[in-house]
Amino acid sequence: MKNLIVSSNPLVKKDLTILRNKETDPEHFRNALNRIAFILASEFGINIKLKESEVETPLEKTNGYILEKPVVIVPILRAGLSLLNSFLEIIPEAKVGHIGIQRDENTLQPVDYYFKAPEKLNISQTVVLDPMLATGGSASAALKILKERGAGECFLVSVISAPEGIKKINTEHPDVKIFTACLDRQLNSKGYILPGLGDAGDRVFGTF
Ligand code: PRP
Ligand code: URA
């Protein structure tokens, strides 16, 4: 496995325990995801490229910095939406694209149903958000769609990743750096991550 950054922040481990707990209700589940996303956004931020831009304090001019390239955040619908607000808190200048992808329950293949993204993906830093990287089919399809529309530098952020998903992204998108809160053991026969947290979208939106 390569291009993988697993968070070592102890607060992430604490909140992952809340996410994994089957008794956690949607409100507390969303709150814990927000907090983890905030930390992952900060860790992703270390990779952001800046350029110098002079700033005038009340006393004198000094060196400052602005984004070198626009940042585009792309949550994969539905569950990726749960990470968006924290990323916008950390990078408020970012533009937002949306990709609708649903995994077919039987074949586990991704089915895409919606796409809308800002222009100039070719000169942007694009970060795809999805709390779960299981087979990797959905994230890989999202990255492929973005690259077909010109995206250059791409990153992927997930909360729980399976080794199978990491390997797929490494193989199909060797240029993509992955930020994750944790690397779990394996997938079960239905493509769910073990130990995982169950169905992220259902737990975020209370659709169970
Ligand atoms: C979940 C999750 C990912 C995908 C991961 O979405 O949010 O998008 O499954 O699985 P994969 O790595 O094997 O593709 P789901 O298809 O359940 O859609 P939802 O977010 O609308 O619930
Ligand atoms: N999608 C989820 O929401 N959870 C899993 O464990 C796998 C895919």
Properties at a glance:
208 residues; Rossmann fold; 9-stranded mixed sheet; two-stranded antiparallel sheet; 15 strands; binds 1-O-pyrophosphono-5-O-phosphono-alpha-D-ribofuranose; binds uracil
Summarize the structure.
Helix content is 33%, strand content 30%. By secondary structure, the protein is α/β, with parallel strands linked by helices.
Give a topology summary.
Blueprint: E1 4-6, H1 10-20, H2 26-45, E2 50-52, E3 55-56, E4 61-62, E5 65-67, E6 71-77, H3 81-90, E7 95-96, E8 98-103, E9 110-116, E10 125-129, E11 132-133, H4 137-148, E12 153-161, H5 163-172, E13 177-183, E14 186-187, E15 193-194, H6 200-205
Parallel strand pairs: 1-13, 6-7, 6-8, 6-10, 10-12, 11-12, 12-13
Antiparallel strand pairs: 2-5, 3-4, 8-9, 14-15
The protein binds 1-O-pyrophosphono-5-O-phosphono-alpha-D-ribofuranose and uracil (URA).
